[in-house]
Amino acid sequence: MSRRIVGIAMIAFAIIIVITSALFAFPSLATNAEVSTGIISPTPTPFATPAPFMAQPTTPPTPVLTPQGTPPTITASSAYLLDDDTDNVLVNINGEQPLPMASTTKIMTALIAIQTADLNMLVTVHQDAINEVIDNGGSSALLVKGDQIRLQDLLYGL
Protein backbone atom coordinates (compact mmCIF):
# COMPACT_ATOMS: atom_id res chain seq x y z
CA MET A 1 0.00 0.00 0.00
CA SER A 2 2.76 2.45 0.93
CA ARG A 3 4.73 1.61 -2.24
CA ARG A 4 1.64 2.47 -4.29
CA ILE A 5 1.28 5.82 -2.51
CA VAL A 6 4.97 6.61 -3.02
CA GLY A 7 4.68 5.63 -6.70
CA ILE A 8 1.67 7.88 -7.25
CA ALA A 9 3.41 10.75 -5.47
CA MET A 10 6.51 10.31 -7.64
CA ILE A 11 4.43 10.30 -10.84
CA ALA A 12 2.58 13.45 -9.74
CA PHE A 13 5.89 15.09 -8.87
CA ALA A 14 7.32 14.17 -12.30
CA ILE A 15 4.28 15.67 -14.06
CA ILE A 16 4.65 18.90 -12.09
CA ILE A 17 8.36 19.05 -13.00
CA VAL A 18 7.61 18.54 -16.72
CA ILE A 19 4.93 21.25 -16.77
CA THR A 20 7.05 23.70 -14.79
CA SER A 21 10.14 23.14 -16.93
CA ALA A 22 8.05 23.63 -20.10
CA LEU A 23 6.79 26.96 -18.78
CA PHE A 24 10.34 28.04 -17.90
CA ALA A 25 11.77 26.82 -21.22
CA PHE A 26 9.04 28.53 -23.26
CA PRO A 27 7.86 31.58 -21.30
CA SER A 28 5.78 32.69 -24.28
CA LEU A 29 3.48 29.71 -23.64
CA ALA A 30 2.67 30.93 -20.16
CA THR A 31 2.21 34.56 -21.27
CA ASN A 32 0.02 33.67 -24.27
CA ALA A 33 -2.16 31.39 -22.18
CA GLU A 34 -2.72 34.10 -19.57
CA VAL A 35 -3.47 36.81 -22.16
CA SER A 36 -5.83 34.68 -24.28
CA THR A 37 -7.91 33.68 -21.28
CA GLY A 38 -8.07 37.23 -19.99
CA ILE A 39 -6.65 36.30 -16.63
CA ILE A 40 -3.66 38.62 -16.65
CA SER A 41 -2.86 41.53 -18.90
CA PRO A 42 0.90 41.86 -19.24
CA THR A 43 2.29 45.13 -17.93
CA PRO A 44 5.92 46.02 -17.48
CA THR A 45 7.12 45.64 -13.92
CA PRO A 46 9.38 48.40 -12.61
CA PHE A 47 12.59 47.14 -11.04
CA ALA A 48 13.87 48.64 -7.83
CA THR A 49 17.49 49.71 -7.72
CA PRO A 50 19.22 47.65 -5.07
CA ALA A 51 20.86 49.56 -2.27
CA PRO A 52 24.55 48.90 -1.71
CA PHE A 53 25.21 46.16 0.84
CA MET A 54 26.57 47.44 4.12
CA ALA A 55 27.63 44.89 6.70
CA GLN A 56 25.97 45.38 10.05
CA PRO A 57 28.05 44.90 13.17
CA THR A 58 27.15 41.68 14.93
CA THR A 59 26.43 41.64 18.62
CA PRO A 60 27.19 38.59 20.70
CA PRO A 61 24.09 36.56 21.53
CA THR A 62 22.68 36.91 24.99
CA PRO A 63 21.50 33.90 26.96
CA VAL A 64 17.75 33.38 26.79
CA LEU A 65 17.44 31.45 30.03
CA THR A 66 18.99 32.40 33.33
CA PRO A 67 19.35 29.55 35.82
CA GLN A 68 17.62 30.16 39.11
CA GLY A 69 17.87 28.11 42.26
CA THR A 70 19.77 24.88 42.67
CA PRO A 71 19.81 22.56 39.65
CA PRO A 72 18.84 18.92 40.17
CA THR A 73 21.60 16.52 41.17
CA ILE A 74 23.06 14.54 38.29
CA THR A 75 23.77 10.95 39.28
CA ALA A 76 25.14 9.84 35.91
CA SER A 77 28.81 8.87 35.67
CA SER A 78 29.19 11.19 32.70
CA ALA A 79 27.29 14.24 31.41
CA TYR A 80 27.99 17.17 29.09
CA LEU A 81 25.58 20.05 28.46
CA LEU A 82 26.36 22.84 26.01
CA ASP A 83 24.42 26.07 25.38
CA ASP A 84 24.17 26.05 21.57
CA ASP A 85 23.56 29.81 21.35
CA THR A 86 26.61 30.89 23.35
CA ASP A 87 28.82 27.76 23.14
CA ASN A 88 29.13 27.89 26.93
CA VAL A 89 29.58 24.56 28.69
CA LEU A 90 26.86 24.40 31.34
CA VAL A 91 27.69 20.95 32.79
CA ASN A 92 30.80 18.83 32.33
CA ILE A 93 31.03 15.67 34.41
CA ASN A 94 33.63 13.40 32.81
CA GLY A 95 32.50 14.77 29.44
CA GLU A 96 35.70 13.61 27.74
CA GLN A 97 35.23 10.00 28.88
CA PRO A 98 34.57 7.72 25.86
CA LEU A 99 31.28 5.85 26.20
CA PRO A 100 29.33 3.50 23.93
CA MET A 101 26.75 5.15 21.70
CA ALA A 102 23.66 3.70 23.37
CA SER A 103 21.02 5.81 21.65
CA THR A 104 22.53 5.32 18.20
CA THR A 105 22.72 1.57 18.81
CA LYS A 106 19.06 1.50 19.83
CA ILE A 107 18.00 3.45 16.74
CA MET A 108 19.95 1.15 14.40
CA THR A 109 18.61 -1.96 16.16
CA ALA A 110 15.03 -0.73 15.75
CA LEU A 111 15.63 0.24 12.10
CA ILE A 112 17.05 -3.15 11.14
CA ALA A 113 14.29 -5.01 13.02
CA ILE A 114 11.56 -2.95 11.33
CA GLN A 115 13.07 -3.40 7.87
CA THR A 116 13.88 -7.10 8.04
CA ALA A 117 11.66 -8.87 10.58
CA ASP A 118 7.98 -9.61 11.08
CA LEU A 119 6.86 -7.24 13.83
CA ASN A 120 4.15 -9.69 14.93
CA MET A 121 6.73 -12.44 15.50
CA LEU A 122 6.76 -13.81 19.05
CA VAL A 123 10.12 -13.56 20.80
CA THR A 124 10.85 -15.86 23.74
CA VAL A 125 13.03 -14.46 26.55
CA HIS A 126 15.94 -16.84 27.22
CA GLN A 127 18.22 -17.08 30.25
CA ASP A 128 21.20 -15.61 28.35
CA ALA A 129 19.23 -12.36 27.86
CA ILE A 130 18.50 -12.24 31.60
CA ASN A 131 22.20 -12.88 32.34
CA GLU A 132 23.18 -10.04 29.98
CA VAL A 133 20.96 -7.64 31.94
CA ILE A 134 22.35 -8.79 35.29
CA ASP A 135 26.02 -8.78 34.20
CA ASN A 136 25.89 -5.33 32.57
CA GLY A 137 23.42 -3.49 34.80
CA GLY A 138 20.84 -3.12 32.05
CA SER A 139 17.08 -2.77 32.31
CA SER A 140 14.84 -5.81 31.98
CA ALA A 141 11.33 -4.32 31.60
CA LEU A 142 10.47 -6.93 34.26
CA LEU A 143 10.73 -9.70 31.66
CA VAL A 144 11.57 -13.17 32.96
CA LYS A 145 12.81 -16.36 31.33
CA GLY A 146 10.10 -17.92 29.19
CA ASP A 147 8.10 -14.72 28.57
CA GLN A 148 6.82 -14.44 25.00
CA ILE A 149 6.29 -10.96 23.60
CA ARG A 150 5.75 -9.55 20.10
CA LEU A 151 8.79 -7.98 18.45
CA GLN A 152 6.84 -4.74 17.97
CA ASP A 153 6.21 -4.52 21.73
CA LEU A 154 9.90 -5.18 22.42
CA LEU A 155 10.81 -2.29 20.13
CA TYR A 156 8.58 0.04 22.15
CA GLY A 157 10.77 -0.83 25.13
CA LEU A 158 13.89 0.54 23.47
Describe the structure.
The chain is of the alpha+beta class. Among the domains are: 36 residues; 40 residues, no CATH class. The strands form two sheets. Strands 1-2 form a two-stranded antiparallel sheet. It has a two-stranded antiparallel ribbon with strand order 3-4. A hairpin with a 4-residue loop joins strand 1 and strand 2. Helix 1 packs across helix 2. The protein starts with a helix and ends with a helix. The model has no long low-confidence stretch (mean pLDDT 80).
Topology:
Blueprint: H1 2-25, H2 27-37, E1 79-83, E2 88-93, H3 102-116, E3 122-124, H4 127-136, E4 148-150, H5 151-156
Antiparallel strand pairs: 1-2, 3-4
Give a brief rundown of this model.
The chain is α+β, with helices and mostly antiparallel strands. Helices cover 42% and strands 11% of the residues.
